[in-house]
Task: inverse folding
């Protein structure tokens, strides 16, 4: 973020300046520390709540500018409803809502981590902080002129989470900060324009993970040719930007334990190649590397919080362009697995990248499971909109664990079918398979069936089609960015709950 965002924890105390954000339950009921802090303005709050018909309903807010009796320049009261059995997801959302009520021109804010029945736990105070951090994100590094009204925007913003045990909350936030940093990294990568973030530059930025203890290996075109990754190389052969594969390894588990593996599609820009896309909306194809961005952000998060697991992230980085050397419809390529592929549509390129990278990951690392993420098909958006990512899996336990992690983080997945009936649609007359099903029907499924042909069925595997969630997705209380960083929190939670020793 260009403007510095500073987050701290402190004791309950009425702030001497800035914005004060507090929470109340239905009936406008406050916790004891909150009630004490706003006591000088209690009558004003009561009259304003009555006038605005504010009752503390979940998600509602009451704002008072220059509240009489308080030194704060603005008092914001956010309703949490009945306030019983709040989940971590709820509290993170409330942290985002609180940050959303802090105007861009405000340099300081205090958020009281208290419910009507008393102070939030240290963990919940840290969750509030994480929500605020994620909501504060903005990608405006290329703007040279401020909008009207932004002249007073401060160079830095400071938010203090007031709590009964600041030291414990600060300790609890350390892990949450690592995860937020991973989300921010993923958002930055997705938001970057393709003239800045091309395969070699993406690989260079992934190399920065060495600072948090991640081992990073970059495979160039020569190495990829030697490995036989012709499906991946075929996608990028029309671009002047060379393709790359980046291998990131975090060894926080027991020595010798099989790693968990994450694979990301990293098409840094997708014109569609010879099967070129319509001009309208093509600019969004800078985000066709959101899967690779998620994997990179996830490896940062796991390493920064010292996750007790061995993990590997492998991303295939290409640019799909239509020059005289570009792959043609009708071409046949031999993948690293030895299987041959007839290219029907050069805009069905992500599955070609994933096929080679998944095969490579399985053969080299023999992981406990593999999860790939890709902004793969428009068909999944037709099916699920922007609310869920499509999940395809060969293993029920892995699918159930992913679904649970999605419920707990709000990064939801919905399981879609796989079956031999769909396989018939990608059989080719001239090669082992073709890269599209040849019709509009079940496009997300036939894409998953294609990828499955490169998966060793002995290894639990899931494919997440994040075309509807990876970029230009639904805005939430903790995300107002075009690039969402979707999947980092989901997969971190999956690992934390099920695979750390």
Result:
């Amino acid at each position: 973020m260009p403007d510095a965002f500073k987050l701290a924890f402190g004791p309950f105390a009425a702030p001497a300046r800035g914005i004060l954000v507090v929470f109340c339950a239905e009936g406008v009921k406050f916790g004891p520390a909150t009630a004490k802090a706003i006591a000088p303005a209690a009558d004003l709050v009561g009259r304003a709540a009555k006038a605005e018909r504010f009752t503390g309903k979940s998600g509602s807010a009451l704002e008072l500018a220059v509240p009489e009796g308080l030194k704060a320049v603005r008092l914001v009261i956010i309703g949490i409803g009945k306030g019983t059995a709040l989940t971590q997801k709820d509290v993170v959302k409330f942290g985002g809502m609180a940050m959303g009520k802090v105007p861009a021109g405000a340099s300081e804010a205090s958020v009281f981590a208290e419910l009507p029945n008393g102070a939030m736990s240290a963990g919940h105070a840290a969750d509030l902080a994480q929500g605020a951090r994620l909501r504060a994100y903005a990608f405006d590094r290329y703007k040279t002129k401020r909008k009207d009204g932004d002249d007073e925007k401060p160079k830095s913003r400071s938010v203090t989470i007031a709590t009964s045990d600041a030291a414990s909350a600060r300790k609890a936030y350390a892990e949450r900060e690592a995860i937020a940093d991973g989300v921010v990294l993923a958002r930055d990568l997705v938001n970057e324009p393709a003239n800045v973030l091309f395969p070699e530059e993406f690989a260079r930025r992934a190399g920065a993970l060495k600072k948090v203890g991640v081992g990073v290996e970059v495979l160039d075109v020569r190495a990829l040719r030697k490995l036989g990754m012709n499906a991946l190389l075929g996608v990028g052969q029309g671009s002047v930007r060379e393709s790359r594969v980046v291998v990131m390894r975090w060894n926080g588990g027991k020595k010798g334990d099989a790693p968990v593996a994450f694979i990301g599609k990293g098409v840094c820009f997708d014109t569609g190649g010879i099967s070129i896309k319509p001009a309208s909306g093509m600019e969004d194809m800078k985000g066709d590397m959101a899967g690779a961005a998620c994997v990179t952000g996830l490896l940062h998060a796991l390493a920064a919080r010292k996750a007790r697991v061995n993990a590997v992230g492998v991303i295939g980085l290409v640019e799909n362009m239509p020059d005289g050397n570009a792959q043609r419809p009708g071409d046949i390529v031999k993948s690293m697995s030895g299987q041959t592929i007839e290219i029907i549509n050069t805009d069905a390129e992500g599955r070609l990248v994933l096929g080679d990278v998944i095969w490579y990951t399985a053969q080299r690392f023999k992981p406990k499971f593999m999860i790939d993420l890709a902004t793969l098909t428009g068909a999944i958006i037709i099916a699920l909109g922007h609310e869920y990512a499509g999940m395809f899996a060969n293993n029920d336990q892995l699918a159930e664990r992913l679904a649970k992690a999605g419920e707990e983080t709000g990064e939801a997945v919905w399981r879609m079918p796989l079956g031999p009936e769909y396989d018939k649609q990608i059989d080719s007359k001239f090669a082992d398979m073709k890269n599209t099903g040849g019709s509009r029907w079940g496009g997300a499924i036939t894409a998953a069936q294609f990828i499955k042909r490169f998966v060793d069925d002995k290894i639990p595997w899931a494919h997440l089609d994040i075309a509807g969630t990876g970029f230009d997705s639904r805005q939430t209380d903790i995300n107002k960015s075009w690039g969402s960083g979707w999947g980092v929190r989901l997969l971190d939670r999956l690992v934390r709950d099920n695979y750390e020793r």
Q: What stands out?
A: Residues 4-165 form a domain with the Leucine Aminopeptidase, subunit E; domain 1 fold (CATH 3.40.220.10). The first strand starts at residue 4 and ends at 10. The chain has two domains: 4-165, 178-498. Residues 76 and 101 are 7 Å apart (CA to CA).
